[in-house]
Structure formats: structure tokens, C-alpha cells
Amino acid sequence: MNIFESRMNELYALIEHHAGLYYDKDSPEISDAEYDSLVRELNELERNYPQYARKDFLTHKVGGSVNELFAKVNHDVPMLSLDNVFDSDELAKFFGRIDSTGPFVCEMKIDGLAVSLIYENGIFVQGSTRGNGHVGEDVTENLMLVDSVPKKLINAPSGKIEVRGEVLMTLERFNAINQNSTKQFANPRNAAAGTLRQSAKNNHVIAERGLDVFLYYLVNAQAQGVNTQNDALVWMHEHGLPVQSAYRVCESLDDVNEFISQWQNERYKLGYITDGVVIKLNDLTRWADIGSTSHAPRWAVAYKYPPEEARTRLLDIKISVGRTGVLTPVAILEPVRLGGTQVQRAGLHNADEIERKDIRVGDMVRVRKAAEIIPEIVDVDVDSRTGNEVKFMMPSRCPACDSEIVRLPNEAAYRCPNRASCPAQLVEGLKYFASRAGMNIKGIGKKLCEKLIASGKVKRLSDIYELEISDWIELEKIADKTAENILAELELSKSRPFVNLITALGIPDVGSGAASLLTEHFGNLDAMMKADESDISSIDGIGPVIAKSVHEFFRNDENMKLMKKFSDMGFMMSIENPSREVRKLEGKIFVFTGALSSMTREKASALVKSFGGKTASSVSSKTSYVVAGENSGSKFTKAEKLGIKIISEQEFLDMIDSESII
Ligand code: IVH
Is any ligand 1 atom within 6 A of the Cβ of residue 414? Predict the structure, then answer.
């Protein structure tokens, strides 16, 4: 066997291994860029040495397989992948091959999970994953739990409509989940894929974690009288299907290149991960003639951005302790410029990753910023080692409270078990308690939480309500007026809805979604506390993990004392608000758009709920009122179109009687 044949065999094995981890297990060990470069090396070798090529290898098919967990769905029109190009020459060659001069539509390439959605007479009836391109997995029930998948289209088109797009997790959701849960995902794509491909008994996590979708392909567009990709995007938008706003019609390849460079840095502001630009021939009436290979269309191509990389020294590995006690190693780097910003920290995910990459303190490392906000260490420059590098060991005691660290057999994470008094957990817990989803106490940020805990004056959450004005002045070195404001904010927070309190407690795995299911079901604290595990898990949307966690929380004496305190202080302990006799907004659904001037949207929603009404994030025929603040956008237009009553912020306040607003 010559070296080429043996390298090719090696690449076949490597790619097979990594593709399995990526597509089937949703847990890759190498980055997408590294995977792409293996595939490129193989493609090159296959071109030069076709005699050693394996024609039926997976790189010649669409990736992914079909999981037994789900029923199978046949894709009438195969769900194809895209060919990749990595620079403008390759791009020009690609379109040269089909002798096309444009116009083209450039869209951001979303790094998510491809899905197909089918609507019958405007009603969502089936959703599936790509699978092997011909047969996918039926994930209809799970997609029902994704808010941004419309269950009903606007101006319902008759007959069958199929659209395709990408399910994703926003960076905000991804970071929140990784910070506060025992479950650690490598990146948002894996988090999205892992979340969507849930068994029926576990699908409560879908609503809890929060997924999003963008559509980019209207199947059989011409049947709807749509002849260009641009019109297809507009058509989908007008029927209520979310499409990205980052796209443009480009007249020439020069325009395309300009779009590519413009978005190279701007894409970091999108809030979700994109790894390239998809360039499609705008005139879709020509797509069928141009045709496809077995795995990708010839009328579209993906331009992949190069990852941003730099070399620097790893100065230290610090341990951060999260709200639920999970220990996460963080790399402290010699500052280096990367992707437009100065970088001095990198994520290390967990101890296994440090071990696998053999990362030692003192090493020269290659850091890469993919679209993720936190950069990661790709590998170590082993050759430049001096012998003074120090291997990392996960501490056996908590760096914040010295408790012995535990690692549960079925958990990858290391944890500090001292929930009651570990200062690091208290800081995080207090910060979460005061956050918007919790008691929404303005003026209490991370710095102040650290001071409060360090002072020893706050040992449990309720203590912040018992501090004197002099305590605040002393702690914060602030003026009387500011201290008074904090006290007023604290007082105000006591009347937040019951669901905010349950969220604010920071019960592991209970976010605002689960908290709202719990409060709606039990109605008050007493019923919630008395419930046994099976009562809790019988709630639609609450699974065994949350049930166990909630049950355990209310079996703990310290927690019970805390709840008693809150109750004595006059917090809302039920969903009914006794001070408001009327549930005057019962049955009404409100949608807020634009900026409100007298309160935040969270507060406005809380108000609606406390008067028995509901809020929704998008306008539909069920919406009762759209409250339009300043600079309201598409929701306003949509409401006008549907003939929904649009009211001003003042009219909204009048409606609920501003006198009684807290
Ligand atoms: S168009 C017939 N547009 O990238 C192919 N795909 O690597 C239609 N993707 O399979 C695909 N963003 O899952 C298209 N704006 C976009 C996309 C996009 C992400 C995914 C899609 C595709 C994969 C190929």
C-alpha cells in the first residue's frame, strides 16, 4: 500500500468516526472546521487517486442517520446538503460551472439542525429531520413545543405546503443552560439537536430550553406563483414563517463577495451561530434544469468562513462555581486579539476535555473563536513545551467553601454539594433571584451580590429584605437617595407574581417555563409543597427530573424556613392576587411591540397576568390587543392586516387602571 492509499484509509476511518459523533450522538470531539478540513483533504486525494476511492462512502451521501426513537418520514423531495467553498476563487468556479451570472440571493448559513415542516390548509401537520436525506425522523410532537414554529399560517394557503429550514438555539439560551444546568453542551448546534431529538417522555425540556427556527426553502415554490428565492422568503414571511433578516439579493459575484465580507464580523451580532453564507441562484424556475448531484444542488453553494485563530499562552486554569454548584474550568490567557476583540479567557467545558486535549498550564495554545462568543482552545503546541508546564487536576475541594467535591455516577459534572452556604453558589443564586426572570430587582447586579455575600450579612435569599438603609450605604458607599431607591425596589419586588418567586428560588432545572407550569397547576405554595413526586410529574410538560428536584427542594428544612419568611414578608404565595378583586383581563391575549416608556416588557406581561390575562410573543388571529410602544415593527403591520385592535401604552395603562399598579 502506498502512502496515498494509506492516508486515504486513515481519513475514511477518521471521518466515519467523527461523523458518527456529530450526526448520531450530537457530541462532536473536533470542531466543524477541523472536520471540513479532513473532508477536503480526502476529496483532493480522491480526485488524484480515484483508484483508491470508496464511491459509496458517506461524504458522497447526505450525512446523518435515522434514530429508532422516531417514526420514519419519507421526503418526497430529498433533503439535500450543500457543497462548500472556502474562498472567492472556488466560489467563482462553482458558478462558472453552471454558467450563471446571477442575480443571487445571499443568506447566512445557520449552524443548526435541518427540518422540514408540512402544513395542510395552513395547519402544521408534520415536522421531520433530514435523516439520510430520503428518510427522516418524525419530530412533529417535539416541533409543536417550539414557539417559533407557527402552528397555523397567516392567510392559510389551501392544500399542502412544505417548507424547510433550520432549528437552532440562540446564544442567550445556550449560555443560560450551560451555566445553570448539570447538562453541558459543546455548542449551540448540539444543544439544539440534542434538545429536539427527545423521546416523548422527556419532551418537556424542549419548551423549557427554548428553541427557534428559521425557514429558507419553500418546496415547489412555483405552485404558489413564486418564481424567485427572494419572493419565496417574502412569501414565507408573509405567511408567518420566521425567516432570517440577514439576506440580500446580489446582482453579481462581486456583490456576493461584498456581502460575504460585510457579514464576516457582523454575524457575531446576530445572537445565533452562523458559519458561512449560502449563495443561491435567485431565479428558481431554472433550478430543476440545473439539477443536483446525489447530495447537493448545483444552483446553490455554501461559502464557509475561516475560523479566527491566534496563538497565546495559557496562564492559569481557574474554577468557577455555578448557581447549582457545577464546577467549570476556565482558561486564563495572555491577552490576544481575536475576531475583533481582546480575548483573555477561553471556555474549557469540563475536565474530560482538558484531559483529552492534554492542556497544561504554561502551554502555548491555539485559540479559536468560531461564532461562539467564548473562544475555545483548539490544541496545544507540544513542541514548544519546556517541561515546566503543569498538568491540571480538578480540585477535590470547592475553591469557594472548601466542601468536598462530588461527582455523581451518571453526571459528567463535578459539583460542590454545599447548596446552603457555599458563597459562590450564594452569589450566583442571589444574582439569579434578583434577575429579570426572578424578582426583577433593579440595581442588584453581580458586583453587589458579591459584596452582600462577602459581608456575611446575607446568608440566605430573604436576608436582603432585612438589611437596614445604613447597611446599604455602608456596603455600596452610596448616597442616601440611591439606598432609598434600592429599598423601594425591594419593596416593589415583593408584589411580583407567584411565578416569579418560584422561578427566583433557583430550584435546579426549574426555569421560568417550568415555574409557570407548576404555579398554574398548583395555584398556591401550600399545594405545591404538599405534592408528591408523582403529582408533580403528572403535569403536562414536567418530567421526572424536574419533579424530583421540586419535591426535594420542599423537603429541605432550610428551604421551608425560607418560604415561611417570604410568606411572612407578604410575598405572593398564590396565583390569585387578593388585592385585585377583578380578573378584568381574563380571556384576553396581549402582544407588546416596540419600546414601552413607563415599564419593561416583563413588567407589562406580569401586570397582564396578574389581572388574569395572557401575553403572546407574536400576533395571530387570537390576539385581543397589540400594545404598540415606540418604534414598533412588523407586529404592528401584522396586527393591522389581521384587523386586531392596536392600543397605545397609555390606553393599556388606563385599561388596567394605573392607580392600582404596583
Ligand atoms: S439552503 C437544497 N439555506 O446547511 C439545499 N441551507 O451544509 C437547501 N443551512 O442542508 C439548503 N442555513 O441544513 C440553505 N440559509 C440556508 C441555510 C442552510 C443553513 C444548512 C442546511 C443545509 C446545510 C448544508
Answer: no
